[in-house]
Amino acid sequence: MKINGIAYRSIWRPSDDAKSIRIFDQTRFPWEVEVLELRDVGAVAHAIRSMQVRGAPLIGAVAAYGLVFALQNDASDAALEKAAADLIETRPTAINLRWAIERMVTRLRALTPAERVEAGYVEADAICDEDVQVNEAIGRHGLDLIREIWERKGKTGRVNLLTHCNAGWIATVDWGTALAPIYMAHDEGIPVHVWVDETRPRNQGSLLTAWELGSHGVAHTVIADNAGGHYMQAGDVDMVIVGTDRVTAQGDVANKIGTYLKALAAKDNNVPFWVALPSSTIDWRVRDGVKEIPIEERSQNEVLFMTGLTDNGAPGRVRIAPDNSPAANPAFDVTPARLVTGLITERGRCDASEEGLKGLFPDGQ
Ligand code: MRU
Fold first, then answer.
1. DSSP class of 124
2. Quick one: 115 and 219 in the same domain?
3. CATH code of residue 291
4. Are residues 191 and 84 in the same domain?
5. Could you list the residue range(s) of the whole structural domain that residue 331 is in?
6. From 97, 184, 303, 307, which residue has the greatest number of CB atoms within 10 Å?
7. Does 191 share its domain with 336?
8. Structural domain count of the chain
9. Does ligand 1 come within 6 angstroms of the Cβ of 123?
10. Nearest 5°: CA angle at 339, between 337 and 340?
11. Does one domain contain both 166 and 208?
12. Looking at the domain assignment, is residue 365 inside a domain?
């Protein structure tokens, strides 16, 4: 996608410095577009933990290069296993991270240590290229849904969508998952409008999704997280579409904290609730998402402080709770499959159920 008319991916390997990667520092958006250079595994682990990079598919791609960086001085089996374990534990909920690392380890373990670094770059590049293709396919399948709504409305007014968190191009290598169909609908001339949940505590909605949509010219309105149900009751939401960090074999969906409440409100108001995901987000090893998906608990400071643009025009942080009040900060929640209208994958749409997923992915992959 483009920033000021220039096409970017959210991660790239510069041709004149191919042993490093570049990412955008997502803690600086939307006020600054700052490119970070990463060239060692420690910097990669820090970028993932601190959410300079974030979004399930993107952290998988970045971690893949992190593994290669770790092997530059020591490409032994022991070094490979240790770096893999260290990277996997940086963020526990998004399964794409483990998926990417396991794919890399499987590929590299079969080679001699001397061959591993070069082959690692090739494999990490492939993970990135495939992510772009997969998201484009998700976009096309989701676009069909938006087109159906537009036709059902007699091609009058606008199609109102609601999204939570950021599942756009900066959460993936390009296109995004939940936002890909929205970009495609907009490009096709369908008048879409997006209700953007601010997504407390880190405000990925108001800081990132609003910035992405605005940069692409997509009409949108930022709303407080608690406003979505109100707009659904008023008939102002045609469809909810979100991304996900992990989908279980029976179709339960882990996503940014607050997604579950949106699904409950959607159910009560007969608003379709769709989840867009690449197949690398399916964790075939778990079934009951509420019981089995580990939920990342992040620093209480993310709740107690807010970051924004201050009156003097510079980004700053303010405390929003009394000095002695503690906070809790679960970063994700689980929406049970029964609340999900369907899943949009690179292979098409399916029910959020074991049968639905197996219909599209018979081999469980
Ligand atoms: O904590 P984050 O910002 O990494 O959480 C991101 C999300 O919850 C996204 O919705 C999810 O990763 C899907 S991104 C295509």
1. H
2. no
3. 3.40.50.10470
4. no
5. 137-360
6. 97
7. yes
8. 2
9. no
10. 65
11. yes
12. no
Residue after which a domain boundary falls, among 108, 130, 152: 130
Give me the CATH number covering residue 61: 1.20.120.420
Distance in Å, CA 312 to ligand 1 centroid: 31
Q: Is 54 in the pocket of ligand 1 (CB under 6 A)?
A: yes
- CA-based nearest residue to 350, from 238, 235, 229, 253: 253
Q: Are 87 and 103 in contact (CB under 8 A)?
A: no
Strands 342-345 and 21-24: unpaired
Asked if 343 and 357 touch (Cβ cutoff 8 Å), the reply is: yes
Rounded to the nearest angstrom, the distance between the alpha carbon of 297 and the centre of ligand 1 is 14
- Give the per-residue pLDDT at 315: 93
So what's the pLDDT on residue 219? 98
Kindly give the parts of the chain with pLDDT less than 70: 365
Backbone angles phi, psi at 111, to 5 degrees: -105, 165
The reply, when asked if residue 103 is annotated as ligand binding, is no
The answer to whether residues 151 and 55 belong to one domain is no
Query: Is the shortest distance between the CB of 57 and ligand 1 below 6 Å?
Result: yes
- What is the pTM assigned to this prediction? 0.97
pLDDT of 365 reads: 66
Ligand 1: distance of its center to the CA of 94 in Å? Answer: 8
Q: 289 near 357, Cβ under 8 Å?
A: no
- C-beta 62 within 6 A of ligand 1: no
pLDDT recorded at residue 140 = 98
Gap from CA of 164 to ligand 1 centroid (Å): 9
* Pocket test residue of 24, 50, 245, 333 for ligand 1, highest count of atoms within 8 A of CB: 245
Question: Would you tell me the crossing angle of helices 56-70 and 41-49 to the nearest 10 degrees?
Answer: 160
CB atoms within 10 A of CB 207: 22
| 204 marked as binding residue | yes
Per-residue pLDDT tens over the stretch 316-338 = 999 999 999 999 999 999 999 99
Last residue of a domain, one of 113, 130, 147: 130
The pick from 208, 256, 274 for probing ligand 1's pocket by mutation, whose C-beta has the most ligand atoms within 8 angstroms, reads 256
pLDDT digits (tens, 9 = 90+) for 291-321: 999 999 999 999 999 999 999 999 999 999 9
